[in-house]
Amino acid sequence: MSYIINNRTKLNSAPNTSLMVAGILKSFSDSPPTHYTVKIELFSMITELFSEDGYESSQFEAGGYKWKLVLYPNGNMRRNVGDHISIYLVIAGTDSLPTGWEVYVDFRLFLLDQNKKAYSVFEDAFTKQKCFNGAMLDAAGFDKLIPIKDFTDVSNGYLIDDTCVYGAEVFVCKERRTGKGECLSRIRDASVYKHVWKIDNFSELDAESYSSEPFNAGGYEWKIKLYPKGTGDGKDSHLSLFFILANPETLPPGSSIFADYTSRILDQIHDRHHSKRATNGRIFSTLHPSWGYDKFIALEMFSSADKGFLMNDTCIVEVEVTVRGITGVL
Fold first, then answer.
1. Which among 7, 46, 234, 266 counts the fewest CB atoms within 10 Å?
2. Which Gene3D superfamilies does the record match to this protein (predicted)?
């Protein structure tokens, strides 16, 4: 059963009235907090050890984000509070969030009255939605939750046998994150880059694959990768050839590169070549840094003396690439 206080629906059932003191709306609930509970059985120790910096809870998840509760048992001295308990909600794990993130939450703090086996529920009476962002990691909480003398008064039930219990409910109302879209920016006057890779002593290649030295095209580093005896569907029947983004891990999160490329093995007799072009281009990214062909050329054709692809135990591989655009996050 839900109940309504000041036209706000509570998720914890308790048919009790509310009161407001110093901008804090206080109501009551017979149900524990939905998202996280902290029980401290040595409150006097917390008071001594965490007087200045505050006692941080472990992280918990609510609304798809990670949070912590920070308790100042003697009041938050950094805000000139010395006679009240101070408690705050802090967003955690922000290193993984993109630039410009914002999260709005409805935050409620619970404090157990151990005498009545019921919770006092505290929330801001004026600002219902708190905004967390990169500059405000502790945007919700209470400088003066409850006077220390009231908290330590056994008759109030908050601190019994040096033990207290508090917790939180955190409901994400709305959020704004960059990185939920993308923009493919066209590179004007894109240039064609050519790289030639000469492979000597081909018959002595005994590894599964070989890569060229990195080369720059369109401001990015690339490699050519060759499988002398094929790979995948071309294993033992074809030579396999791939075009690879050399350092995909250096791309900004969510970015990718749109490029046209053509791979060739030169015919050294007739001044021709065997080539394959990536139709309509390819998108290279951290998740997909490589494109190419398991069956680039049949080994029988490649090794045939009259075709000119392998002369004096040497072959020449060539790649032409044009970087057409860059995809970035919005």
1. 7
2. Apoptosis, Tumor Necrosis Factor Receptor Associated Protein 2, Chain A
For residue 11, the tally of other CB atoms under 10 A from its CB is 13
Supply angle C-alpha 119, 121, 124, rounded to 5: 170
| pTM more than 0.90 | no
Cα–chain-centroid distance for residue 49?
Answer: 34
* Residue 118 phi, psi (nearest 5): -140, 160
Q: What is the CATH number of domain 19-172?
A: 2.60.210.10
Do residues 292 and 152 touch, judged by C-beta distance below 8 A? no
User: Token pair for residue 221?
Assistant: 């580093």
What is the rounded distance in angstroms from the CA atom of residue 244 to the CA atom of residue 242?
6
Tokens of 159: 């601190």
Identity of the amino acid at 159: L
Q: What is the pLDDT of residues 189-247, one digit of tens each?
A: 889 999 999 999 999 999 999 999 999 999 999 999 999 999 999 999 999 999 999 99
Assess contact for 180 and 199: CB atoms under 8 A.
no
Question: Tokens at residue 50, please?
Answer: 């965490």
- Each residue's pLDDT tens digit, 12-21: 433 355 565 6
Distance between CA atoms of residues 227 and 188, nearest Å = 35
CATH code 2.60.210.10 region(s) in the chain: 19-172, 182-329
Residue 226 to residue 327: CA distance in whole angstroms: 28
